[in-house]
Amino acid sequence: MTENRKIAIIGAGHVGSHCAMALAFQGVCDEIVLLDKDRDKAYANAQDVADACLFTSSAVTVRVGDYDDCRDADIIVISVGEPRKPGQTRLDLLDNSVIMVREVCSHLVKLNYGGIIITITNPADIIADYVRKALGMPRTRCFSTGTSLDTARLKRTFSEMSGVGRRSITTFSLGEHGNSSIIPFSSTAVGGLDYKELKKSDPQRFADLDEEKILERTREIGNEIIDGKGSTEFGIGAALADMVKSILHDEKRIMPASVLLEGEYNQTDVHAGVPCIIGRNGIEKIIELPLNQEENEAFCNTCDIIRKHISRAQSL
Prior knowledge:
Oligomer: single chain
Number of strands: 12
Strand content: 15-25%
Largest sheet: 6 strands, parallel
Number of helices: 9
């Protein structure tokens, strides 16, 4: 890490600009550079975020830039892409996303970049794999936010259904950042207590903790946001900033990311959302949760879906 902690964000639309805003408001870094094919838009968003910083304790510099600015960035965030339309899945965005990311990679490959790349572009798992391969990077330094936002939605759903504060809930969404994501309920705990034991302790209070309802609600939140305003932006911006903070501050926190699996969970050659220890070196360790048979089958299914689209992305 350099003394001037620098983040380059490629793609300055709804998502990229809100990533910049979240980073600036948290005071995570010292410099944020926005890049976009529409330089005027990138300039305008950089100026807007810079104005907002005057009302916070952050002293971060926010400006527009180009690919040369990526050369010495500690972290590059790739957020190019089109927002989902109502009724679309993230997988439906694959063709256009590959075209956009291919162009981005054509510029980055010339830099011999030695930092960390976090991709946000959907479909998240497939694009993370595509970028990692295109740039020849190790899995520790090129990954996606993956199921980090899914996990946040899961914790919120669990909290709303149980009446327990979300910070007391330990759980993760695994697999695809999409409709095949799974929840390992066998590893879900509330205040250190297995959630099923919690239900037994007070069945009336926790009557709404139905696994199918929790999974359905967790998956549906993103669709509701798309239907209501056409894009998601605040949640993913905060998730990205949280991940960047863990890297720059070497916090070594456990959080979900979509990383290449090389035998973990009995899976290979696939990016999937799993809990990881994330610190200064990027993905420092993948945490393998003890899945039961049903959860393992569901995880195999979500990985097969991702793997199928990874193959398709390479053929485009």
